[in-house]
Amino acid sequence: TVSGTLDNGVRWELTDGVLTISGNGAITYDYNGGWHQYDEDIIKIIVGEGATEIGDYAFSGCTGMKEVSLPEGITKIGDYAFNECTGISEVSLPEGITEIGTCAFWNCASLAEISIPSGVSEIGPFAFYSCEGLKSVDIPNSVTRIGYRAFENCRSLTEISISRGMTEIAEGVFYLCEGLKSVDIPNSVTKIAYKAFADCTSLAEITLPKSVKSIGHSAFAECEGLNKVTFEGDAPEIIKDSYKGDPFHNVDASAYRPENNKTWTNEIMRSMGTGLVWVSEKTTPLKIVPEATDFTYVIGSSGGVTIKCTGELKDFVNVYMDGVEVDPGNYTLREGSTILTFATKYLDTLSVGKHTVTLNYTYGSVDTELTVLASGDGNG
Fold first, then answer.
1. N or C: which end of the chain has fewer CB within 10 A?
2. Cα(296)–Cα(374) distance, rounded to whole angstroms?
3. Rounded Cα distance, 369 and 285, in Å
4. Which pLDDT tens digit goes with each residue over 242-285?
């Protein structure tokens, strides 16, 4: 058994791996000793009645600690309070807590679940960073702010419910949450920042409510599992800064917007991400016109290749060759309804064989096949 007293009179005792803390006031880090010289020996922590705050670094580095008991009356979990407590699997936070500090549970890799009390108004930056075992989090409506990268790298997180008091989803909050399958963004959120949901590869669909007025670069970048994106309101402003990448960079999904909403221009739709295919209920059926379309090209020929589609030119977004967007400098467009002609210099770079050409419009896409033949093979 070892024991001691903090500067504010709070007493502690460590017996057989159990750290018991008693007294009134904040549980603070004792730079002159305290229990931190026995961090690796602590298995369980019991904080007695009278404690008002788990202070900064209070239990940081207690890597062997598996269980903690906190009393009612605590109002704050300080910065780095449980940082690197890699053995803890569950924490029950008492009602009355209003703030969870920066890096409070940083790298608590075994933490599988945590209940955030209804009085918490702020979750600090990196609060649950790299809690790789965390599976679900219910953020109460009292929370008005979540700091940047708060849940980054929580790879086991499958579901998140965001507070209806939130107005901003900060930078990288759910970045690299690879297991995240669903998220409900409430109609209070006005801003989704840079990389807020980037690399959430299991996310299948997302709805952005009318309240969203701005969206950051790469906000949903590399969300390879996304197949449906719905915008319920006006086109949000794309926040331009030093970062690169469209909000939906490297995402191939059907995208929906309000019908007849004039804020959604072709330029804005393209800037959201070139892999988005915009869908609308009132559209012209997309069909290739065979009698006006070239299906074969011989390398070295002149005149290029022309493809005619029934889709209206005003709704045209881009064209893909074998799933890769073609630079607009490699083709021309004419009305009627859409007449696209590939330049000879571009066609001569294609390999011999069959290629899939995809014309993308704001409301859908249509494929055709182009066969490229080698010159001098008796093809005429």
1. C
2. 11
3. 19
4. 667 899 999 999 999 887 888 999 899 999 998 998 876 556 77
Query: Is the backbone of residue 107 left (phi > 0), alpha (psi -120 to 50) or beta?
Result: left
- Mean pLDDT for 80-94 is 94
List pLDDT tens digits, range 213-233.
999 999 999 999 999 999 989
Q: Model-level pTM?
A: 0.74
The span from the CA of 326 to the CA of 239, in Å, is 26
264-299: string of b/e by CB count within 10 Å (b at 16+)?
A: beeeebbebbbbbbbbbeeeeebebeeeebbeebbb
CA angle, residues 42, 44, 50, in degrees to nearest 5: 110
8 Å CB contact between 115 and 94: no
Q: What are the CA-CA distances from residue 326 to residues 137, 160, 210, 272 (Å)? A: 42, 38, 33, 17
Side chain identity, residue 110? S
Task: Find the helix or strand (DSSP H, E) in which 123 lies.
Answer: strand 122-123
Of 220, 264, 223, 278, nearest to 246 by C-alpha is: 220
pLDDT in tens, 68-85: 999 999 999 999 999 999
Residue 376 has a CB neighbour count (10 Å cut-off) of 9
Does residue 299 contact residue 374 with C-beta atoms inside 8 Å?
A: yes
